[in-house]
Amino acid sequence: MQGSANLNVMIKAARKAGRSLVKDFREVENLQVSMKGAGDFVSRADIAAEKIVRDELMAARPTYGWLGEESAPVDGQDPTRRWIVDPLDGTTNFLHGMPHWAVSIALEHKGQIVAGVIFDAAKEELFYAEKGNGAWMNDTRLRVSGRNRLTDCVFATGIPYAGRGDLPATIGDLARLSPACAGVRRWGAAALDLAYVAAGRYDGYWERGLKAWDIAAGVVLVREAGGLIEPLDPSQDMLEQGDVICANSTIFNGFAKVIRGA
Length: 262
Prior knowledge:
Layout: H1 5-25, E1 33-35, E2 41-43, H2 44-60, E3 65-68, E4 71-74, E5 81-89, H3 91-95, E6 102-109, E7 112-120, E8 125-130, E9 135-137, E10 140-141, E11 154-156, H4 167-177, E12 183-185, H5 190-198, E13 204-207, H6 212-224, E14 227-231, H7 238-241, E15 244-248, H8 252-259
Parallel strand pairs: 3-5, 11-12, 11-13
Antiparallel strand pairs: 1-2, 3-4, 5-6, 6-7, 7-8, 8-9, 9-10, 13-15, 14-15
Helix pairs in contact: 1-2, 5-6
């Protein structure tokens, strides 16, 4: 796909940060790691990757706002546009030597996510989408899966870790969904879970307690691949509340009914 100037800037930043992360990933045992919270780690690699992304994006578009995981938010001179960035989604995987993590970059315009890039540098898979122009992985157009029966579907979610209070709700979800589907996966990188729904690898995904930078890029990917994505509570805002559910349009209502407990 021939992307806009903004999308090209995002792709360049994601690739540059991804190359830096791959170098650190090869020496993961030597990384200096500090505690950021129970089960939630931050590394030098994470912070360095955010600096790379921020420097690239803000040099190209200095008037845009900024929301990133590892640094303070910035209100841009242009109040209608904001970058939303997770420089290393799947940090725990990264620090344990598991090659399932990504750089996630989204562009918000007037409250809507209009472009997203999720770069899985370890596998050289670049997922990207722009509103109205479809979703892609490298040079391949993406479509959500065509499965139409829950019993044939594989779903993804996140299992809350130490310090998170939403474990009972997730256990309830699993108790209702597991007997009705072909399987549930927990791979520990929300951005890639959303990208995999866009690619048809997962049939659907839900999770609670995420941050805007976990979700933002994946929102436009799922929509541009033909999927439906909503907050778990339809009265809430996904980016603010961090509770999300998505699937292909055929199974969405049945899947959402199970997860929402209706």
